[in-house]
Amino acid sequence: MTKYSKPNIVVLGGGFGGLELVRRIDTSRARVTLIDKRNHHLFQPLLYQVATASLAAPDIAEPLRSIFSKDQNVEVLMEEVLDFDLERKQVVTPRNRIGYDYLVVALGGETNYFGNDHWAKYATGLKTLADAHRIRNEVLGAYEVAENLPGNSRERRRLLNSVVIGGGPTGVEMAGTLADLAKRYFQRDFRNIDTREAKITLIDAVDRVLPSYSEGLSAKARKQLEELGVEVITGKKVEDIRDRCVVLEDRELEAENIIWTAGVSANKITQKLDVPKGKGGRLEVEPDCSLPGHRNVFAIGDIVSLKDANGTLVPGVAPAATQMAQHVAKIINREIASAEQKSQPGEGERPAFAYKDKGNMATIGRSRAVAEIKGREFAGFSAWFLWLAVHLVLLVGMRNRMLVLLRWFYAYVRFKPGARIIWRAQKERLEEEAMMEGRGETVH
């Protein structure tokens, strides 16, 4: 790096952390190369609303090239990272070796089945738009197939059953919205089935839902779920998942749709980094978020295991990823500016990252939610309204904010979700699965 050439900062991942990092870099002094295997930033907190037909995919996604189109010093590459060459300061992709002066790994988490990866065939995770589309097609498709079946058969009952595994925010939001769909939105649309008979079950191995929240809010969340008709099973471990069947230690639950929201692990490619790893394969980083032994390589977000300057274990949530990105960007900007003055990278002491907890919130269907903000607790309509406001503000792009606001308003007034299109019929899916199984393949 010299004062005559701009250093290149390579950022892997266009999620909350990667996006914030690129925005914060002083591109008058540096070039940025943003690499992601997808071409868009995804607002994951609203992904479950795509899965439950409340929103369409473009409402919560924004092309990365559009976001940075005005900054000529930001290059976006749609590539998949295959490996790291930290000695040569290069990232390996299928087509290139991309050199860097600073590397920031912000690849996010993946669905974690806790050593039971074969369950993925029967229980769909919720981390990508593809996952959300699959869940929406299969949930809506199940109701359509049930409408065509005679009487109160076992198959019809199974088609109307859904099981959500994992009682964290995503699981609670998914179960509550599925119940809203069945009990409120769908009942006027079908003639041969009573959608209010649909059974939504939420399961978690710990003894309460939303275990990271206070016991009081956890209890209120459970009460709101049960008022919607969700069966909440806590303190029961999933022993096995088979085709349309969840096996607990004391019972078996038949369900057409099984949705897994119980765990997150670090992106698998990060396992190629030769650094200590914690729970879920998360990278154990230095207090400044750099990798041990590699001062110019940082990791942020879900892939990181870190106790901050206050001794708090940083949670794997979007605000933490954003704050980490801001912290790392300050370090990089300062050192680049220092290098321009001294003609060499800055080697000064770096501050430790300190996480500021701004609160937690989870929605539980129409007019229902729980929230913790600055020591204050909210539940019911007030928490739901706060949840709406915060998520609208955080969405990327004015167009997305307006579309989401209009869709929410329409759904609230008319009791109709706005994205109930199925583009692959249930019968076609079943035929495709049978054909693929015959070949020894798995459909995703």
Written overview of the protein:
The chain is of the alpha/beta class. Helix content is 32%, strand content 22%. The protein contains eleven helices and 25 strands. The strands form eight sheets. It has a six-stranded mixed β-sheet, covered by helices on one side. It has a four-stranded parallel β-sheet with strand order 13-12-11-17. Strands 6-7-8 form a three-stranded antiparallel β-sheet, with no helix packed on it. Helix 1 runs parallel beside helix 8. The protein starts with 7 loop residues before the first strand and ends in a 6-residue tail after the last helix. 43% of the residues are buried.
Oligomer: single chain
By helix and strand content, what is the structural category?
alpha/beta
Total beta strand runs: 25
Q: How would you write the strand order of the largest sheet?
A: 5-2-1-9-21-20
Radius of gyration: 23 Å
Residue runs with pLDDT of under 50 for 5 or more positions: none
| Overall residue-averaged pLDDT value | 89
